[in-house]
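One thing: mind reviewing this one?
=====
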Amino acid sequence: MIQRKKILFIHESLDGGGAEKVFVDMLARFDRRSYDITLLLLFGGGTHTQSLPEDIRVITLWTGKHRGLRWLRWHFLATRDVMLRQAVCRALEGKYFDTIVSFLEGPALKAHSFVLDCAKRNATWVHANLETNHWSSYMFADTDSEAAVYIKMDAIAFVSEGARDAFKRQFGISERLHIVHNIIDTPVIRQKAAEPLDEVSGKRPVIINVGRLEVQKRQDRLLHVVSILKQRGLDFEVWLLGTGRLEKDLKSLALRLGVSDRVRFLGFQSNPYKFMRAATLFLLTSDTEGWPTVVCEALSVGLPVVSTRVTGAEELLGGGIGVLTGLEPEEIAAAVEPLLGDYAALARMRDNALHRASEFDPEAVLSQIYSLI
C-alpha cells in the first residue's frame, strides 16, 4: 500500500474571491491516493465553505467571521503575534507533515512562519502583485521581516510572471521561485454556464463584472465608465456580481452619477458562469491583480474581455485575445464603446477567447503543484 504524504494547507478563511475559489477547486482535484490533506483555517465560515470537499480534514482556529474580533487580532500589534503563535502551535501540537503550504500572503504566511519546523518541506503561494498592492505588509514589522519568512521557504509559487517579477523587485529574492498558474476547469465552467438563467432582461447589450466589491477592484471606476457611455447615448446595462465592504458606497455612487437605471447589483452568485454566458462583454477595471482568474473564466465561456492593463491580464489578453486599456474612465469607455455595436468584432473576440481557453490545462497545473510540494 502506498504511503500517502501528509500535506497541511494554511489559509486565512474561505470568505472572499478568486484565490479562495481557486483553492477549493484545487483541493477538489487533489490526488487523495497519494496525499493526506489537512487544512488549517485561521477563521471559519465564508462563502466558499460549502464548496470545500467533505473529505478534507479541517482545523479552525476561530469559528465564524468575528469581524470585530478579527480586527483586534490583526491590528492590536502588541498581542497579535503572540495570540496567533499560541493558537497555531496549540492546534498543531504533536502533528508533523511532509509539507506545509501557506496558500496566500499575509495572515496565512505569518501563521506558517510559526510552524516551519513541523514539516520536512515548506512552500508558499503569492497571488498578488506585492509591488503595487502590498496588502500583506500589516502582518509584518517591515519588509525585511516579511522577506525573512519568504527566505526560509523551500519553494515560492506565483500565479503569474508579473507577480514574480514584482516580488523580486520588492524583496530582492530570486531563488526557488516558480510560476504556477491557477487551475481553470474549463469543462466544469462550461457545464455550469449552460444552466438556465432567469435574470436575462430585454435585448440590450450587457457588460458584466464579477468580483469582490473592494477598493482594488475599482468598480467605482466602472460606474464612471457607465456614466460616460450613457451620456453618449448608448443603450446597454451592467451586471455587477459580488459582495463586499463597498457595496453601499457603490450603490450611492450609482445614484449620484444617474446610472442606477443601467446597473444591476446581483450580489454573490454561486454560479456566475451562466451570467457570463448571457453577457456581451466582460469589463475588468481593477487597479491591481496577480492573475485575474475571473478573466480566465470569462475566456472559458467565450466572453470578450476588456481589462485595465494589470498584472496577469497582459499575459492572458495579449496578441489580440482581448482589449487592454489604461486606468482612466475615458480611455476605458473609448475601448468599450465601439464594441457594443460591432457584432463582427465581438464574434472575433469570442473565437479568440475560446482559443486562449483551450490552453488551460488543470492536470498540467496539478502536476506542477505536486512537484513543488
